[in-house]
Amino acid sequence: MKQQKQNKLVTDLLDSDYKYGFTTDVQTDVIPVGINEEVVRLISAKKNEPQWLLDFRLRAYRKWVTMPLPTWAHLNIPPIDFQNISYYAAPRKHRDDSRQIDPELVDTFNKLGIPLEEQKRLSGMAVDAVMDSTSVKTTYREDLAKLGVIFCSIGEAVQHYPELVRKYLGSVVSYADNFYAALNSAVFSDGSFVYIPKGVRCPMELSTYFRINAMGTGQFERTLIVADDDSYVSYLEGCTAPMRDENQLHAAIVEIVVLDRAEVKYSTVQNWYPGDKNGKGGIYKFVTKRALCQGESSKVFWTQVETGSAITWKYPGCVLKGDNSVGEFYSVAFTNNYQQADTGTKMIHLGKNTRSRIVSKGISAGRSQNAYRGLVKVGKNADGARNFSQCDSLLIGKQCGAHTFPVIDVQNPTAVLEHEASTSKINEDQLFYCNQRGISTEDAVGLIVGGFTKEVLNKLPMEFAVEAQKLLQISLEGSVG
Amino acid sequence: MILKSYIDLYRSAQDRFNAGAPDWLVEARRGSLDFLQQHGSLREAAAYATDYGMNPDRLQLKEDPYKLFSCAIPEISAYNYLVVNDSFCIPGAAELPQGVVVTSLAKAFSTHPEWVKRYFGLSHTDSADWHFNQLFAQDGLFIYVPQGVVLDQPVQLVNYMYDKEARMAVSHNLIVVEDGAAAQVLVCDHAWGETDYLSNRYTEVYVGKGAKYEHYKLESTNEHMTNISTLAIDQQAGSQVLTNSITLHGGHTDNRVQVRMLGEGARLSLNGLALGTGRQRISNHTDIRHQVAGAMSSELFKYLLDQAAQGDFYGLIRVDEGADRTTALQTNRNLCLSADARMQARPQLEIYADDVQCNHGSATGQLDENALFYMQTRGISEVEARHLLMSAFAYEVLNNIGIEKVKDRLRLMIDRRLRGEKYNCHACSMCQ
User: Which of A406, B129, B301, B420 has the fewest CB atoms in 10 Å of its CB?
Assistant: First the structure.
């Protein structure tokens, strides 16, 4: 009986659907497929960029051409034809009034629950919505401007705040960092730019919503966040994409610079289309995210809930350069069907008395493969560094895999590092205990998964925590009620 | 490049290397040669760059080696065997239990050809290191314990590196413990003088159903020694295996242990302790494959690193699809005692079955300040308190040694070593 229920549970789990799979019929300006120096120049020209940025892109492109495709991840990546992707797609604006946004687009973002229009002012969140390659609209900009906070698309930032962008772009993730970082640096189209001035505590959550809409395109967004001395910001990022049979590429870079005593919270709920039940379609996601705690006592908190994408390759990291700086990483990665995830973090301790904490929860179901990969490195001068890492995996079903690949590298005797990992299936005793008290197996699984991920979800801002909870529920829906 | 010179060496002296080797091995060496030519990438390849001498003609020492060297742990009763460089020195007759064979591998090629052929290369994986060893290893130890026989004493094998010029020793040990049998093997590594040595040793162990096997490797060589060893164990159903690698002194030590759990109910305990000083480099690489359901493995590896010592721990546990009810536990603890010491740990889990209990824990740090303070408040000096904590740290690994005399001797050696005293064993001819 129990076995049957378990089987049902697994079947239901495999059957749960992707609910953001709609496409929007907006006119899109897509450049022809393929990549070469001309394409890089074309993207730069379309965005009316200054020469230094074009040079940056070209340097990155020239480097990218020489780089081999990375193969070290525990992922089975089908060959990607980089010449068969369009590197720029923008929703075309209505001619009569360029300030008016296509109503279809507004509808899309409404479907996603993004408070793009002013009527949703009450939800109190500033949003930058990015469709395909360009930023569609940024809300609340005026309110933020009064405090000196800059929140706009990176394209606009290049036009209006070139010195700031030039100073920090590529300062955390160099264009030569890795294969996908080089590609992004060459062809990045849009993303958000955030600057929080000295001593300002950003009064609202800043949020970017990314959506891939056009066919045959890739998305290469670039986000740059700079938190000046004594400032604070909480930034949220969400992603969805339509259901398509083809695979789409997403290669993003997020750079965060945190100066003295500043604090940045970066939360992601990633729900790109994961492909269908047979592993067809879905987004390939190769993302480089890194924060540089440059100032003393600076803090960065990464929180991620990863439920989407056919392939996830993502390691948000912290370079703890300032003395007494803190980096924390909380992650829930859920994979189902044929999804593959290789995700984790890097904590590089360089300053004195730096602290980091890693909590990673992986849940694999179906035929998916879910890997945690992490690096904790303590440099020679990082006296008193402290790290605690915990990565737990939960397995649902017989054909999935859960893997853990941490690397701990210590070059300072005063460092204290701890790493713990465990892998198990849902505990039979816990299920039995719940059953005994009249909770159905399905509800019990929901409870256990909820408890398993709670530590991470608690770190998300309220609105996002609710969304993340819902997402996990969708993934488990039908099986856990 | 380096490997190529070895390939050329083999080519030019094939007949000498193949003298006395059975036909199937000569044939297998052809395959190894092809493999190395195509995918040759040896681990620690840089270590092979020195111009080492080899001994393809199996020249023997003039003196009786058993008179020259002995490593007598006080009061230990063991069957003693000696390998000088890579030549097994056949001792006088020892009274082994009925049916047990302990001899040189080179000799076993002719005396027990079928057994050797049946078990040789069973556990290997296609790696450059295996093929390199197969190409050049002409001798080593061969142990055969027949079904149901329990060896009453441990077999002690002393590997002694002895030459006046840079020397490479490539040896191959083959140990077969048949169903229901039991054996303990103690391997001690020593080196003479200030010559550069490289030892490349591959030890294959077949542990039959319900058999028990214990393998201890103690290294106390010197900074001129590069010791690259692989221990490959195949475990059948219900077998129990305990291994413990203790590295006290050496130059560059690279221990690899590969275990395949092939039968239900197999139990494995892998242990290691490394005490590093000077510019010592100590690497322990473990690879456990749970291929069937219901097996259990546990690992405990500890490092104490001082001065500019470097430690590296890589522990992979792989649970194959269908290997349900697997329990795999791994613990790695490291103490870095100086600013120049460096520790790298890579505990890895690869799991393809769902009904499993696997965990690993790794911690790197220093002595607990609170414990030190506690002891000082009770009148124990700081030096003594440190010593107590470090010894306790190390002794945990020694608890997993099944030969009491060896355990006692190691306690003493480690105690002296941690006090900074001369820490050799004092009892053997080499140390005096």
Answer: B420
How many residues in total does chain B contain? Answer: 432
Please tell me if residue A84 touches chain B, with a CB cutoff of 8 Å. no
Residues 6+ apart with CB under 8 A from B409: B73, B74, B76, B425, B427
| Owning domain of residue A409 | 24-425
Helices (H) and strands (E) in chain B, counts: 10, 19
The reply to whether B424 falls in a domain is no
Contact A226, A164 (CB under 8 A): yes
Judged by CB atoms closer than 8 Å, whether chains meet at A408 and B366 is answered as no
**Which residue type sits at B228?**
I
Bridge partner list, B372? none
Separation CA A248–CA A261 (nearest Å): 39
- Facing B365 at nearest CB: one of A400, A404, A415: A415
Predicted structure pTM score: 0.84
Whether residue A400 and residue B354 make contact (CB cut-off 8 A), yes or no, is yes
- Residue B364 placed within a domain: yes
Q: Indicate whether A453 belongs to any domain.
A: no
| B236-276 pLDDT, tens digit each | 999 999 999 999 889 999 999 999 999 999 999 999 999 99
CA distance A323 to A316: 20
Pairwise CA distance, residues A322 & A260, whole Å: 8
Enumerate the residues of chain B whose CB falls inside 8 A of the CB of residue A380: 339
In a domain, A84, yes or no: yes
* Whether A27 contacts chain B with CB within 8 A: no
| Any domain includes B59 | yes
Give the C-alpha separation, A378 to B419, whole Å. Answer: 28
Domain count, chain B: 1
The interface pTM score, or ipTM, of the predicted complex is 0.80
**Are A419 and B359 within 8 A, CB to CB?**
no
B-chain residues near A425 (CB < 8 A) = 354-356
CA nearest neighbour of B65 among B155, B188, B203, B161? B161
B425: in domain: no
More confident residue, A430 or A55: A55
